[in-house]
Amino acid sequence: MRPASQVMTPNIMRSFKATGLSFARSLVARMLRERWSIDRSYGEVAADGAGLLVYRIDAGGHCMTFAVICQGLDQVERTGRIKDNDLDFHAVLFDGDMPLDRIRREAGEQVAKVWKGRTDNTALGWTFANRSNRSFEQVVQSLADGHQPDLATVAGGGAYLLRNAGFYGNGRHGTRSWLALQDGHPLAYPYHVDLFPLYLWRQAGFDFAEEIARARSDKAVRLDARARRYLGIGNQSGIGMVAALVRWPHWLSGFVFAREFILALAVTETGPLDDARLARFIALMKRAERYYIESDTDIDPALEDRASISRELAMLAAMAESFAKGAGQRGVVPRHPLGALMAHARANCLIGTCEQLVALLIDIYPEHIEALLPAIPAAMATRRDVAPEMTVAALRALIADKYDWALALDLSAKGGRRYFWYRSEENGENRRGERVIDPGLDFETFVDVAGAIQALSVRLAATPQALSVGRYLVDHPGDVFIVARVQSLAEFPYSEIHANIIHEDFSPGDTIRFYLHILGMETSNPNNNRWVRGVFMQGAPLPEEVAAGAGGDWAFPVLNDSGVFG
Amino acid sequence: MSSNNSTIHVAASELLRLAPDALRGLGFCYPLADRAASVLVWGEAVHGLSLRFLADNGPQIEVATRHGYSLVESGAGTLACDELDAKGKCLLEAGPRALDLAQSRMASGEAGITLLTNTLGGFLAGELVTRAMARGRAVLIVLRAGAGDSLYEGDGLLCGIPTANGPLILAAGLEALSRTGAADLASALGLGGPAAAVAGDALRRFAEASADAAPRLALLVCRASAAHGAQLAEQFAAAPVTGAPSWRGVSDFERRQSQALRHGLEVDAEAWSVLGHYIQRTRIQTSERSRTQAG
């Protein structure tokens, strides 16, 4: 397996790509397996978009309700930031079948109070969305005029109609705690309750666009299935994700370990490879090659050189094809063909290409994905706690072993301690401030793992080595968090970001992209080093396909020569 | 949507998310706030008292966060018995320290005892029991409620043992120590003869000492022995809890936590508002320049 020292660095993490282990993909896989039905049970939308749509979901026998309200769409561009109260769409995901009067009461609370509203535990979460400034109106008008929108243009604009403005569940606003979802609940797997509304927003976006078009014109047409399949749901995420990753290292470990384990199995598999697996691999490579050219065309090449990645994927696909033909390089097929492919990529290709290759190698082993999926929530359920009987000497040895990367950082160098994270008074949004300029250091959000480790090491070195940790903490109670972190992560590799997060050169965008691809974002485009936008669910099967259990291989949706998905 | 004018519906995970910030607003440093938050949520889920406790005692809790501990360590010997003066620190922060200290003594012996004095919030002692059992340890707590602790109404014993059938939590009145003999109780927890005698003596003296204004706890932590569960249950049943209504139904701790997680909590609206006030202390006014660093 690749060591944490290689994998958990920002330059690798930012290049991680979505796989079948990603939470959005595992959610859709479950939806398909159980043939969830998503039916619109109520709809009333005016020409200006004002209205209500209600969806009834049957998830393997478990009922949920998704209700979306719109107050009317004006010409104002909405950022969807947490500080804003103006949003295009408000929605609630309820557990169970909800009557209209209950839905309207909830909508009233949401619209009137937004971030300050309260609900009860029948609600799994509140969620908000805004129109794509580039595509929504264009699509609506095309449909109203009686024809399909130009998908290539919509693709260039991000390939979505609605942009997610957040999901607020797991207790926020009084919604049900995620841990309260019993085993067997369709959304009991981590992040599925957060991501299912993205799938529903995608559908609601289509429905609102069609209803508005129909209200405008008698000759309006519906958005065809190919266009619906191609479009995803937009998303934009900021630096708060960095603090979340630092706060939950067991989550990080669970996910990355599963990835690296499957990768190790793939690259050490002895050839010849199964014909069907190799064929699927080559097909995915070719789709990925094309996807990198077609999608998100305005990503700065300095951030991700998609043209070069596409070329390199084509080269690797050709290499894989030679293995399939029994040819290989210089007429010899390597003993470990996928390992040889990976080694060739590392020696000759961009990091982005290598990590895309990693993701594809994982995806061609669905049996391993299925086996490893339960390991992720198991790791995430681990509780951080102190082991008070450990000696100071043993704790120091543990730090030297697991945190050598942190001890090696020169935190005193220029820029080494420039920033800090804090929560703003504007709805508690995460901000990054400068230590010597901005107020709030007293209430700094913990992200400085390296600094805490170095400070703890100094104090431990000055302590009698045979002293127990429990005794040490009486004199240094403020070390309880970092001590518990070190001890409880001893058996959890890939749990820390190997970087000085408060350094002036640290780019939050790197870890934001990492987190988003773990969640299952298909593409990610850093706006700058603090915000990352992209699209989820692009290519995902439509509700009618989900109900039929069809359309499982949906990564890398590509446009055909006519600019139509297919 | 609030339940009624005097309570508000809150999810357990919501409280767990907000509690660290509220405690930081009360003067806890981040590391201690993180740990104390789980104690606070436990107290609200199981007893419904944590938020009221914070609202009623906030200024006192805040002042005490600035104090250090005073520790008198016992010498090496059969059984370590340390005296930890919390200097007014509440059990949210002092409880875990006392538990960790007692448990740490097991590295060189079969048990450890911490006598924690001058603390606040005796009703939170049960969290220490559940924490110890989660670590695979048995724990016996003798609680002497102080007149200054407004939320606790009597003295008693709490005992927790992880067993193959699940955690066993028992409560009894203080007379369990005098009736059966404290040493017998220690033996029932699995301590060997000399250690049981030392532990029993320490616990009995603690139970018989004059009451203080501030709550005091004696924590004995030892290796779990499920075989002793039945014997302990019998001894505890012979000395039922007479006061301390919050300690009645201790076998229900786990069920009450599960209920809170599943259905949420109905918390005192005024106390929730006070929590919000402490949270707001940690929110920082933003400059335009720093606003560009948002996310």
Question: What is the structure about, briefly put?
Answer:
The complex is a heterodimer of chains A (566) and B (295). Chain A has 566 residues and is α+β, with helices and mostly antiparallel strands. Chain A is 44% helix and 14% strand.
In words, what does this structure look like?
The complex is a heterodimer of chains A (566) and B (295). The model of chain A is unreliable at 562-566 (pLDDT under 50). With 566 residues, chain A is α+β, with helices and mostly antiparallel strands. In chain A, the strands form 2 sheets. In chain A, strands 1-2-3-4-5-6-7-11-10 form a 9-stranded mixed sheet, with helices on both faces. In chain A, strands 8-9 form a two-stranded antiparallel ribbon. Chain A is built from 23 helices and 11 strands. Helix content of chain A is 44%, strand content 14%. Chain A is globular. The radius of gyration of chain B is 20 Å and the shape is globular. The two termini of chain B are 28 Å apart. Chain B contains 12 helices and 9 strands. Classes of the chains: A alpha+beta (566), B alpha+beta (295). The interface between A and B is large, with 68 and 56 residues.
In one word, what is the shape of chain A?
A: globular
What overall geometry of chain B do the principal axes of the alpha carbons give? globular
Rounded average pLDDT of chain A: 91
User: Taking strands numbered 1, 2, ... along the chain, how are they ordered across the largest sheet of chain A?
Assistant: 1-2-3-4-5-6-7-11-10
Give the distance, in angstroms, between the N- and C-terminal Cα atoms of chain A: 37 Å
Largest sheet of chain A: 9 strands, mixed
Largest interface: A-B, 68 and 56 residues
SSE string of chain B, helix = H, strand = E?
A: EHHHEEHEHEEEHHHEHHEHH
Q: Rg of chain B, please?
A: 20 Å
Strand order of the largest sheet of chain B: 2-3-4-8-5-6-7
Residue fraction in strands of chain A:
5-15%
Structural class of chain B: alpha+beta
